[in-house]
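Morning F.,

Quick status update on the modeling queue. The single chain you submitted on Monday has been processed. Sequence for confirmation:
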Amino acid sequence: MGKLKLSAGILAIVFGTLTVMSCKDNKKEHDNSDGHHTEMGSEENHMEINNESEDHHHKDGNDDHDKGATMKARDIEASTQKNGATSTIIDGYLQIKNGLVADNKDNAAKGGTALLTAFSNFDMSQLNEEQHKAYMDIVEDAKEQAEHISESPLEHQREHFETLSTDISDLVALLGTDKTLYLDYCPMKKTNWLSESKEIKNPFFGSKMLTCGSVKKQIN
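Structure tokens below.
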């Protein structure tokens, strides 16, 4: 029995080491040969996140959503507008992100509720016809993700945050922002998220792999 416990302990240590090494190896693949992180070209400013992300599943705590559902790519030309109207939406998203970084389900859930409120209060009268159509497409999906985040356990919150990050990135590309944001990349999930800080704090793994990732580009 003692030998079995010892073997299990060794296997756990080896697995943990391999996971961290995998994160580091993936980070190196996204670095330039001079040691700097890769960035998106200007022609990719409509958020290449759609092309990099894997299929996104819409799940709730009981996994009763269609697991074959995938996010559709949106062809959005990046806006350079300094738009403060999106600030409360982004604030709600960042509250979710910071809750997940801290492994705090309750704070992430509060962020989901705040995001839903921000969508309800957003003034759509400022949008032209084309923007309005794209906005409604984004928000319809983003609301669904926010609703699940507001009522799901931590790991399911993280799953919905993947899709939500695509939605909010598309929203920023569509309407612009007056905030300075960073588009970060998680090599383990092969997906992106937005952050208000240049320091990498991974919301998909939290304390397990907090610094896993790289900055893809700065917005503003």
